[in-house]
Design brief:
Pfam families (chain A): SO_alpha_A3 (PF17806)
Structural class of chain B: alpha/beta
Largest sheet of chain B: 7 strands, mixed
Number of strands of chain B: 19
CATH class of chain A: Mainly Alpha
Oligomer: heterodimer
Shape of chain A: elongated
CATH class of the largest domain in chain B: Alpha Beta
Number of strands of chain A: 2
Helix content of chain B: 25-40%
Number of domains of chain A: 1
Largest interface: A-B, 34 and 36 residues
Strand content of chain A: 5-15%
Strand order of the largest sheet of chain A: 1-2
Shape of chain B: globular
CATH architecture of the largest domain in chain B: 3-Layer(bba) Sandwich
Distance between the termini of chain B: 42 Å
Strand content of chain B: 25-35%
CATH architecture of chain A: Orthogonal Bundle
Largest sheet of chain A: 2 strands, antiparallel
CATH superfamily of the largest domain in chain B: FAD/NAD(P)-binding domain
Radius of gyration of chain B: 21 Å
Order of helices and strands of chain B: EHEHEEEEEEHEHEHEEEEEEHEEEHHH
Structural class of chain A: mainly alpha
Number of domains of chain B: 2
GO molecular function (chain A): oxidoreductase activity
Domain SoxA A3 (chain A): 9-87
Radius of gyration of chain A: 17 Å
Order of helices and strands of chain A: EEHHHH
Keywords (chain A): Oxidoreductase
Organism (chain A): Hominifimenecus microfluidus
Chain lengths: 96, 371
């Protein structure tokens, strides 16, 4: 397959080659790959690439998909303007 | 300021609207958070008729069912619908945060029903970022919601129900569908949909895949090739199909970020198309008070999503003390309806998946006890 022209993470413009390079270098979880490449950190927050990367890990390390470790899911589930959080903090004061 | 809510429904699609209606019918106060401008979920673009029995509105078109459910929600004084409201987080202390029209809202729900549905799967092949390559959902939205002709000449990938139905709707819109490519050796969708496509003269290439897409500034054509029994491409079988649009209908996967965040026990279940929260007979997750219904707990169909929504709605309202007897009775009826829906050959896969989740849930309970 022409890995240079196959996009796995559309938001961060990462090709299959980029991801396979990581895997061959020894990175073996989605979270590790995310930290070094930003895969899954764009507008769609990994909804497109997460399972494609999981499949690559599954094929390379011969681990069934059931056992591929999922990344950590943190709020917010989609990018929001920083100002919205700042406003909420000013209006609401502390936690309450 | 934190807003207290009795039952929070996350997502106003078929499962969410039915969950809200069910909980409200027993007296519970419900808030639906819907990220779109209008509730209805995928129903708003489904111009085809539904199957199933009368209880699941069989024979009606998806848009008509959606319209009715939305109207019922708006008329019910116990239901409030918040649109353009994306739930962005569920925290350890039970607080749910919502992004609503440039505001950050905090909610403290007594019960939460997660009905976030699914997202489309993507496919890896060279040239897969060329303009002109769409998910089937986007094509359907352009065509059926926005009234925009999305293409002139389309190649569809996937002969499941979505691929077949969207192909037919494209034909109705006057778009040329040059073919349907399906990796599996047989058509996955209902034969009634496939027959319509074949009668219109559209070839369905089973055992084929996209080898690559090409084009200078946008899609100009697609090279497809045959697959062997192990789904490996067979060289020498390439076929060049000129088209301006490639439409991917290669399946859905549950949209579960909020379940993960909430700390629900999750498992990858192939038959349910991805990671799903483990739920009990009330569709309650392993986090007390948080329920999951519809595609988020396993990809199925809108008909079963609606019944699952009702089941979770009755269970949630009953657990809050709203007419527990009636709640129990109606929950049982919904459960019976689900078994009936899944009794056919298409239900086998779902039942196999649900058995796996039930086994995992039982094992988990066993571990908790056996210390």
């Amino acid at each position: 397959m022409d890995d240079k022209n196959t996009i796995l993470c559309r938001c961060e413009d990462l090709t299959r080659e980029n991801i396979l390079d990581c895997i061959r270098a020894g990175y073996c979880t989605i979270d590790e790959i995310k930290r070094v490449t930003r895969a899954g950190m764009g507008p769609c927050q990994g909804r497109t690439c997460r399972m494609l990367i999981a499949q690559e890990l599954s094929a390379y390390y011969k681990i069934p998909m059931e056992e591929i470790m999922m990344p950590t899911f943190r709020p917010p589930v989609k990018p929001i303007p920083m100002g919205v959080l700042a406003d909420a903090y000013q209006e609401g004061g502390s936690e309450e | 300021m934190i807003r207290d809510v009795e039952v929070l429904v996350i997502g106003g699609g078929p499962a969410g609207l039915c969950a809200a209606a069910a909980a409200a019918s027993l007296g519970a106060h419900v808030l639906i958070c819907e990220r779109d401008y209008v509730p209805g979920g995928q129903l708003v673009k489904q111009t085809h008729k539904f199957f199933g029995s009368e209880k699941q509105y069989a024979g009606d078109r998806g848009i008509a069912i959606g319209r009715r459910l939305i109207e019922e929600a708006h008329q019910n004084p116990n239901i409030e619908v918040l649109t353009e409201a994306t739930v962005i987080g569920i925290y350890e202390d039970g607080i749910v945060t919502v992004f609503h029209r440039n505001q950050h809202i905090k909610i403290r729900p007594k019960r939460t029903i997660i009905t976030t549905g699914a997202s489309e799967k993507f496919l890896a092949f060279p040239g897969n970022d060329l303009p002109g390559i769409y998910g089937a959902g986007a094509v359907q939205t352009l065509m059926n919601v926005a009234g925009v002709k999305p293409a002139e000449k389309v190649l569809m990938v996937g002969a499941g129900n979505i691929g077949l139905i969207v192909s037919y709707q494209l034909l109705q819109a006057g778009v040329e569908v040059v073919g349907i490519v399906e990796a599996a050796p047989r058509i996955g969708g209902y034969l009634v949909h496939a027959s319509k496509i074949r009668r219109a003269g559209v070839p369905i290439l089973t055992g084929h895949t996209v080898k690559e897409a090409y084009g200078k500034d946008k899609l100009e054509g697609v090279i497809v090739c045959k697959l062997d029994e192990k789904f490996q491409q067979i060289s020498g079988t390439e076929q060049d199909i000129p088209c301006d649009t490639l439409c991917l209908a290669v399946g859905l996967t549950p949209l579960t970020e909020l379940c993960w965040q909430a700390g629900c026990e999750m498992a990858f279940i192939r038959e349910l198309s991805g990671h799903v929260p483990l739920v009990d007979e009330n569709l309650e997750t392993t986090v007390p008070g948080i329920y999951a219904a519809g595609d988020v707990s396993g990809i199925e169909e809108a008909s079963s999503a609606m019944v699952e929504g009702r089941l979770a709605g009755y269970a949630a309202a009953g657990s809050l003390g709203y007419e527990p007897e009636k709640a129990h009775e109606r929950r049982e009826a919904a459960a019976a309806e689900l078994s009936e829906l899944r009794s056919g050959p298409t239900g086998e896969k779902i039942l196999a998946g649900l058995e796996k989740t039930a086994a995992k849930l039982a094992a988990r309970k066993g571990e908790a006890k056996g210390c």
